[in-house]
Amino acid sequence: MTESIASAGNQLVKTVASLRQKKYRDELGLFTVEGVRLAEETVAAGWLVDTCVFTAAAEADPRAAKLIGVLQERQCRLVRVPDHLYAKISDTREPQGIMLVTPKRAAAFDDILSRMAKPIIAVLDGVQDPGNAGTVIRAADAAGCSGVVMLKGCVDLYAGKTVRATMGSLFHLPVVAGMASEELIRLLAAAGIPLIATDLSGATVYSAADLSGPAAIVFGNEGAGVGAELLACAAERIVVPIYGKAESLNVATAAAVILYEAARQRLSTL
């Protein structure tokens, strides 16, 4: 049964609005997914959905209506709100009128290792821009990586902009968030997976590096690059060369280039 809420003072409305802040996402263990496409990806991936909030306009859209029907069958809480109220809880500039409130799903490092015999892991070190972080996750998914590790100091995985930038890949790929560098180094050593760091100084051109075996490739902060602790432990340093006049590549672009080179090398050895 669908509920109708019209008051900004309603507790659900207050709770959903609070999820725009990391403090409350962490406290409640919840985050929001906005838009028809992302909501479809969430449901298709089998993620648990606590509540679906939508407007009458969204309910009239065939794709959104189908999605609401699926969620109803799954006993999800369904809440209809007026447009002006939805605008108050939305985290997007042009809301599509449908939002899922979803529990976080904590991935473990073992989830990444178990996906393939020769794991290829994208590691984010201090990446602060949600668009960059989300795009790296999307690129890792597209390139067939085993998973992603976001170290402490990265942007929040569950921030609205990060979630949207993954374009649904968050729901398909194990992403471990908040791991300390020293723990990652220990786990990689125990698993026999070499750490490869992207770095501008003294580095091998990425296409000349052997990326056909197990590897954890670290992509660093937009300004400072990979941290000293990880660089010191790296088995190899690689770089995407600049042939034109651009000062540098966006970290997400560099990640896509390198991860696809790893995929090419791995496919050529099959």
From TrEMBL:
Domain (RNA 2-O ribose methyltransferase substrate binding) ranges: 32-108
SUPFAM superfamilies documented for this protein: alpha/beta knot (SSF75217), L30e-like (SSF55315)
GO molecular function: methyltransferase activity
Keyword Methyltransferase: yes
One family name in Pfam for this protein: MRM3-like_sub_bind
InterPro entries reported for this sequence: Alpha/beta_knot_MTases, MRM3-like_sub_bind, Ribosomal_eL30-like_sf, rRNA_Methyltransferase, SpoU_MeTrfase, SpoU_subst-bd, tRNA_m1G_MTases_N
Keyword match Transferase: yes
Keyword list, A-Z: Methyltransferase, Transferase
Membrane-spanning residues: none
GO biological process entries: methylation
UniProt-listed CDD domains: SpoU-like_rRNA-MTase
PANTHER family in the record: RRNA METHYLTRANSFERASE 3, RRNA METHYLTRANSFERASE 3, MITOCHONDRIAL
Family (UniProt): Belongs to the class IV-like SAM-binding methyltransferase superfamily. RNA methyltransferase TrmH family.
UniProt-recorded name of the protein: RNA methyltransferase
Organism: Anaeroselena agilis
